[in-house]
Design a protein that fits this description.
- The complex is a heterodimer of chains A (119) and B (107).
- Chain A contains no helices and eleven strands.
- In chain A, strands 2, 4, 5, 6, 9, 10 and 11 form a seven-stranded mixed beta sheet that branches. Chain A has a four-stranded antiparallel beta sheet with strand order 1-3-8-7, with no helix packed on it.
- In chain B, strands 2, 4, 5, 6, 9, 10 and 11 form a seven-stranded mixed beta sheet that branches. In chain B, strands 1-3-8-7 form a four-stranded antiparallel beta sheet, with no helix packed on it.
- In chain B, a hairpin with a 6-residue loop joins strand 4 and strand 5.
- The radius of gyration of chain B is 13 Å and the shape is globular.
- The chains are: A mainly beta (119), B mainly beta (107).
Chain lengths: 119, 107
């Protein structure tokens, strides 16, 4: 069974960075892509970026360009999302989601990681 | 960036009735559209991709249609477990973008 396990909740101060992990199981990690998205309370889903877990190619939303870095470790079947220069508006539930490397919808989701940015 | 607009924001439906959710793209996205269901406190679940193809395990009462800029998600006979928020997502252009969501609630 395909499963994405995300790391636990984080509390960070403004200006700090956060790194969230997403461990995949039940499928060939390097044959898939991992997306990172976020959702603030009552808000729509916001796509942040994507990594082809097989070759490491990435694509980022312009909104987060320069602040977000997505990486993958195929030996650990794990993808990572690091967001820097945090501000209070970055407080949200962050999801990783898996999908095809050819079609960019998400057919398996992690349960989400809450990131709170507060002084 | 392609803007996705859903309507209505809230839909009140009685169990057993049909629900129709609309999604409009700010420019043509061919059939590169997906629909997701999100229940309170849960991650989204893929329902439909390619505008009309049901994902694995999705009941036949869920159907999608449309192409270009206008799309529809239809739930033919609402069950209790279908009351949730529904999102559309375009995957034709970067960045990937989502609609604002439609809450389907019990009437």
């Amino acid at each position: 069974q395909v499963h994405l396990l995300q790391s636990g909740a984080e509390v960070k101060k403004p200006g700090a960075s956060v790194k969230v992990s997403c461990k995949a199981s039940g499928y060939s990690f390097s044959s898939y892509a991992i997306h990172w998205l976020r959702q603030a309370p009552g808000q729509r889903l916001e796509w942040m970026g994507w990594i082809n877990a097989g070759n490491g190619n990435t694509k980022y939303s312009q909104q987060f360009q320069g602040r977000v870095t997505i990486t993958s470790d195929t030996s650990a079947n794990t993808a990572y999302m690091e967001l820097s220069s945090l501000r209070s508006e970055d407080s949200a539930l962050y999801y990783c989601a898996g999908g095809s490397i050819f079609y960019f919808y998400m057919d398996v989701w992690g349960k989400g990681t809450t990131v709170t940015v507060s002084s | 960036e392609i803007v996705m607009t859903q309507s209505p924001a809230t839909l009140s439906v009685s169990p057993g009735e049909r629900a129709i959710v609309s999604c409009r793209a700010s420019q043509s996205i061919s059939r590169n559209l997906a629909w997701y269901q999100q229940k309170a406190g849960q991650a989204p679940r893929l329902l439909i991709y390619g505008a009309s193809t049901r994902a694995t395990g999705i009941p036949a009462r869920f159907s999608g249609s449309g192409s270009g800029t206008e799309f529809t998600l239809t739930i033919s006979s609402l069950q209790s477990e279908d009351f949730a928020v529904y999102y559309c997502q375009q995957f034709n252009n970067w960045p990937l973008t989502f609609g604002g969501g439609t809450k389907v609630e019990i009437k």
